[in-house]
Write a structure and sequence with these properties.
alpha/beta, 13 helices, disordered C terminus
């Protein structure tokens, strides 16, 4: 079918990847109705396009205390400019879906303010703003599902298909990118400082070296709390600032994935190089994946092996399995009626993607290289409050963290990826970090302030404003 429908821009502001996932879901549905659609982050979208685009869908999360995600800050600065004429977006039809957490005071602040601002500038909302809540038992999907259904109902009213054009049947899964393996040889590999992100890191990223990694709680205590000291090169930070690090998968988890694939005769050569190509321009390849990387590097540093699968995973597994029983279960997990069952299988026991592949062997044995990038989500950076003072530790950043380990109904203990990765680091090892301004704002007066924290081994940890 050569028919091409209206242009549709689907833009996301995403801190941890949830908004991006939903934006890509909307993009996939748009292909069913022949829309000439793109999906990209708000900061990668040329804001000048907003002055000519007829229809734009926004999916944006709220971070911290009402802050916008890092990848929409430039767009946010532009859209809030006071000198923008109030009718400048009179041509625009738009919809806004927000992802937030109702336990925070500024629940979905970004989506609410964006919706109001677009309307103020003359834009016409297609449907009311959607306010996804991570506190719901079913997560963001509890709001996102009916919101997306209503969105497409309205879009197809505004932009109906011609009578002789029928929606595509998207029963088969079409991967976003085409992947292939080539033999390890003379390639421009990015394995520098043991990080596949080295070549694409921002100018504000820097290397840190582990100075010390000590457990502050007694060995018999139920909680392992660590003080980790990182050596820097004098990077400046203020009280309340946040240090961000990107963890790697723990080696035993990587071996577990390799065993699952090998046991199901999925014989990828882990040392060979993965090459990705775009299938179409609407969904570009992330910068880090444009480099020549081995599949082993992707297993260790890119794919989040501890992630709890989303429904998209079961759409894919259900489409490739040879087992009717597996297919029925996957279909159940992807329906509105099966969300409670999906929650009980995945979210409540915190079952990760590797364990799911173990449970669905007839689907796992049919995995292709392309599909690995569909069922695995990338490892997201983690943020930690800085537990030291730049005034007293000019070349150090200290982290105070609890190592996440807990039990569910599953036999194997659940662990947090980043906290256990950091707890396993030894003095002399390095990793990449960067600093973000925290949401905590100190009063501007010169009155001394002491913030008191928990007592650990008889020590009170605190931060002085003056330091």
């Amino acid at each position: 079918m050569s028919y091409v429908h209206t242009k549709l821009s689907i833009l996301f502001g995403s801190q941890t990847g949830n908004a991006q996932d939903i934006a890509e879901r909307i993009w996939r549905i748009s292909k069913k109705y022949y829309f000439e659609s793109i999906v990209t982050s708000l900061d990668e979208y040329h804001v000048s396009e907003l002055l000519v685009d007829e229809c734009v869908i926004f999916v944006c999360s709220t971070t911290g205390q009402g802050e916008v995600p890092d990848n929409m800050k430039k767009f946010w600065k532009f859209i809030l400019r006071k000198n923008l004429p109030l009718g400048i977006l009179a041509h625009l039809k738009f919809a806004v879906l927000g992802l937030g957490d109702s336990s925070y005071v500024k629940f979905n602040f970004t989506a609410k303010k964006l919706f109001k601002r677009l309307h103020q500038l003359g834009g016409s909302p297609i449907i009311p703003v959607g306010l996804g809540d991570d506190q719901h038992d079913l997560g963001y999907d509890a709001i996102a599902d009916p919101w997306i259904e209503n969105l497409w109902k309205q879009l197809l009213t505004i932009y109906p298909l011609p009578d002789d054009v029928k929606p595509l049947e998207l029963g088969s899964i079409v991967p976003r990118w085409s992947a292939s393996l080539k033999l390890l040889g003379n390639v421009n590999n990015v394995l520098i400082n043991q990080s596949i992100y080295y070549s694409t890191r921002s100018k504000d990223h820097f290397d840190v070296t582990i100075i010390d990694n000590v457990q502050l709680t007694e060995q018999s205590h139920f909680q392992d709390v660590r003080l980790i000291k990182l050596e820097t090169n004098g990077q400046i930070y203020s009280p309340g600032d946040i240090v961000v690090v990107r963890p790697k998968n723990i080696q035993w988890k990587v071996r577990e994935l390799e065993e699952v694939l090998a046991n199901n005769n999925v014989n990828f050569s882990l040392e060979n190089i993965v090459s990705l190509k775009e299938r179409e321009h609407g969904i570009p390849i992330p910068d880090v994946l444009k480099y020549e990387l081995s599949l082993k590097q992707l297993f260790e540093e890119y794919f989040d092996l501890m992630a709890i699968p989303r429904r998209r995973t079961f759409e894919i597994l259900g489409s490739i399995t040879d087992s009717e029983l597996e297919r029925e279960k996957c279909i159940e997990f992807t329906t509105a009626e099966g969300q409670e069952e999906f929650f009980n299988y995945c979210n409540r026991p915190k079952r990760n993607i590797v364990e799911v592949l173990q449970d669905f062997p007839h689907a796992t044995k049919n995995l292709t290289l392309d599909l690995l990038f569909e069922i695995f989500s990338p490892i997201k950076p983690r943020e930690f409050s800085i537990a030291s003072s730049f005034r007293w530790h000019k070349n150090e950043i200290h982290l105070l963290l609890a190592v996440v380990k807990y039990k569910t109904k599953l036999m194997k203990e659940r662990i947090g990826l980043c906290s256990n990765f950091l707890a396993g680091l030894q003095p002399g090892e390095t990793l990449t970090a960067w600093i973000r301004k925290g949401s905590f704002k100190f009063p501007t007066s010169d009155v001394p302030i002491i913030l008191v924290g928990p007592e650990i081994k008889g020590k009170i940890f605190f931060v002085r404003k003056s330091s």
